[in-house]
Inverse folding.
C-alpha cells in the first residue's frame, strides 16, 4: 500500500496544482492588502492581481502620484510578506 500523503503535502508539491496555488496566492495579496498597508484603507482599494500585476483603485490623482513614487516599496513589502515574488508591478486605476 502506498504511503498516505496529507492534503497540504499534495497541494504544495503536485505540479498539476501550480496554477491553483498561484491563483490562491494572488487572492491572498488582495485580501491581506490592508493588513500590510492599514494607512491606505480609506485611500486605495486592491482590486485584483493578474499576471503579477496588482491593480489598485485610487480616485485621487495626487495620491496616485505619491503611490506611484512608492511603488517599489509597496511591491517589496508584499513580496517580503509572502516570501515569494508575487507582484512585479502595480497598475493604478481610477
Amino acid at each position: 500500500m502506498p504511503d498516505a500523503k496529507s492534503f497540504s503535502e499534495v497541494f504544495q508539491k503536485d505540479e498539476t496544482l501550480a496554477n491553483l496555488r498561484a491563483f490562491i496566492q494572488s487572492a491572498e495579496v488582495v485580501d491581506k492588502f490592508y493588513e500590510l498597508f492599514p494607512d491606505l484603507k480609506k485611500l486605495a482599494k486592491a482590486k485584483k492581481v493578474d499576471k503579477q500585476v496588482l491593480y489598485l483603485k485610487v480616485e485621487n490623482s495626487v495620491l496616485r502620484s505619491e503611490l506611484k513614487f512608492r511603488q517599489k516599496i509597496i511591491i517589496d513589502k508584499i513580496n517580503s510578506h509572502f516570501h515569494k515574488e508575487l507582484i512585479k508591478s502595480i497598475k493604478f486605476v481610477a
Q: What stands out?
A: The chain has a mean pLDDT of 89. The chain is about 50% helix and 20% strand. The beta strands are 44-50, 53-58, 89-93. Residues 7-93 form a domain with the GMP Synthetase; Chain A, domain 3 fold (CATH 3.30.300.180).
